[in-house]
Amino acid sequence: MIPEIGYFSLVLAMGLSLLLCIFPLWGAYTGNLRLMRAAPSLAVGQCLFVLFSFAILIYVTLTDDFTVAYVAHHSSTTLPWYYKVTSTWGGHEGAILLWLVMQSSWTALVALMSNSLPWVLRARVLGVLGFLGVGFMLYTLWMSSPFERLLPYYPVEGRDLNPLLQDPGMIIHPPLLYMGYVGLSVSFAFAIAALLTGKLDNTWAKWSRPWTMVAWGFLTLGITIGSWWAYAELGWGGWWFWDPVENASLMPWLVATALLHSLAVTEKRGVFKSWTVLLAITAFSLCLLGTFIVRSGIIVSVHAFATDPDRGLYILSFLGVVVGGSLALYAMRVSEVYSEGRYKFASREVTLWANNIFLVVATLIVLLGTLLPMIHKELGLGTISIGVPFFNQMFSILVVPFALLLGIAPMMRWKQNQLPPMVKKWGGMLVLALALTALWLLPNYEYVAPMTFIAIALAVWITLGTLLDIFDKASAQDSFANGLKRLGLSYWAMVLGHIGIAFVIASVTLTSAYSVERSVSMKPGDVAQLNEYSYRFDGVKEIRGPNYSGHAGVVTVLKDDKFIVELYAEKRLYDIGMQFMTEAAIDDGFFRDLYLALGEQLSEGAWSLRIYHKPYVRWMWLGGILISLAGFMVVADKRYRRRKIKGAVA
Amino acid sequence: MNKKLLGFIPFLIFIFLCVFLYQGLFGNPRELQTGRIGQTMPSFVLPDLMDESKQWRDTDLKGDVYLLNVWGTWCPTCIAELGYLTELRERGVRIIGLYYEQAYDPDFGDQFDINALRNEVQNMLDRAGNPYQFNILDLDRTLALDLGVSGAPETFLVDANGTILLHHTGDINPRVWRAKFAPVMQELSE
Lengths: 650, 190
Known about the structure:
The complex is a heterodimer.
Chain A lengths: L1 H29 L2 H5 L1 H24 L6 H6 L6 H7 L4 H22 L5 H25 L24 H30 L4 H32 L10 H26 L3 H24 L12 H25 L14 H31 L9 H21 L10 H23 L8 H26 L4 H7 L2 H26 L1 E7 L4 E4 L2 E12 L3 E12 L2 E13 L5 E4 L1 E3 L4 E10 L5 E9 L2 H18 L2 H12 L1
Chain B lengths: L2 H4 L2 H18 L18 E3 L7 E3 H4 L4 E6 L4 H15 L4 E5 L14 H15 L6 E3 L4 H6 L6 E5 L5 E6 L4 H16 L1
Family (chain B): Belongs to the thioredoxin family. DsbE subfamily.
Protein name (chain B): Thiol:disulfide interchange protein
Keywords (chain B): Cytochrome c-type biogenesis, Disulfide bond, Membrane, Redox-active center, Transmembrane, Transmembrane helix
């Protein structure tokens, strides 16, 4: 009975969503204020029903109700309770329900926080969000209900959650990613509402900016955690695989990054208007496309989600309606847009324009690399595979001009700059960046490849440029301390974001260039040496967890005969699925990670072990966290709060 | 160009993309391996599973139609199809095994006990039936990789000139044989 209530609650939510889609849009079209005013309560209502439905799924999972197919396939009695909760988004149906939770919550949040928007715009934004809600709810109810029953023959024990997903990183990775995807639907809704209204002025840009920033912050964090999860859980120390599923989240991120820079130009200067709208549409379209790629099985991926052509067809149709519709609308409206602003070549406008070009090119590379194998096959040209080298090479070329620009971009002013004094400053910066890089790398590493040197110099260059700009801006005020205080949160967000990028570039470069690994066969007492660390194998002990058993290799790490850490590299056999899982042991550090994976038992007490030494790998996720902080910080900026208070009074 | 027309470019690109996505939906991405069909058998030199001193080359296999069956004792489906494959052998089909060892990872520096494996294989074939003329041991998986093998069991039908005619993923049973292999065999014998 209870699962049926969950399903029914979702039906009600869809009903409200349908009204949310029709009433305000119709009201805005006919100028009927009463219809428009219904939007916020409908938005909150549909959200409550979706939340209730999700609560019921959690309840049936916690109570081990294996008559529900989803629970039987993704949970088990022995699963710890927190993984039971997370198993509600470990499978396809539940993941889509989680998406719905996010979608409806964002919609309700927009409804509650937009009371200073003009009604016509507010109604249209909520109407568009309502339409998206209907699309996803219909999909859930029709094709992927998590409340489907296995009656009358149901199992007494569930199939358990995929062991790969039994990890803290995986608990938060999908929700964060969905927060990002769905958050971008808000930017999308603002863009569509602006197109419908026909007023592509900077109002919509101003409004959608904080939402876009937060969505982008979540997306950044989601990707970062995903990378960390892959590193910690897959057992061979990789952190990015250019897998279609990863690319599906990277593409919206790249476009969203372009979007939030472009939004700044549109808000402040009233130019790039149509381009910004197009980016907003593209960012969300890529989220949908990513979902399609992941869920339809159109591309073979190591992530191998449940695939089903019917589901794929639905998502593709939905994609066609949403994206095709908005691009058609864009095409019809865009010719009416005129830019008023004027700017010279050496200006912030042009710098941001170049930033957009780089990010869009990067997106196209990822899109091409992801879809080309499929298109190639459909054209009857046979199968090709585009692998990691393609992406790596493309990105290492693209990062050079991008990072050069990033280093000087914050110093550029709107409209026009005097180039000669700036060029002089940049020359000094360049010399300093090269000197610092040499000081950093040459004493520490025997061999420095030219590309490594260039990449690190670029990371230093970005950092120097950002710091120099803080110094310049702060000293322009009466006193340096006052000047620092005057810099707004948005400015500090930019600083964090850019330095985060520098961290990521440095980390990717150094980890790729200087990681070392060894595969060894060890008996208890054996010592293996890797770089300055020695690893003493102390033997293997049996372990027993709630739903797995296995072995843990105990390894003592020593440096110059001094004890550093004792590591337990586990090999687990999960009871129900009989799946082997490697739980790598990681000693994390700011400058290096020691990473240890237990392999097979060989003969007479010998085990195979893989030892990795990964310098600076942690900086990657540190950088990711810094970047996402930038997204969250902007929301707290006074500029956005003040307007809200003013709006509430008016 | 006219600004109005320019605005339609994103829309057109999207439509173009949708056509491919739609087609891709009904194509099977797991048929990647069919790329091997019509090509000749990749060249290789690999040892016999049971006798290390014996080396098999791709040229040794030519001259007669054969099935190349990728299998391993670790793979339950492979064991299950041994019975039917043996029946096929008795009916005169030439079957060559490509032994795929899962426990051994070439990138991993594992120790490997060939004698234990030989005993295991012999026991298994004694018990479940031996359809193989001989078995090739592809420890480093080079041939499996060249053939686009994604798992076991998989079976290739190769003609006397060494051209790959069929690639089947999954077990061979009477139904699969009748539907997929028998017509091609028929054609070859005519």
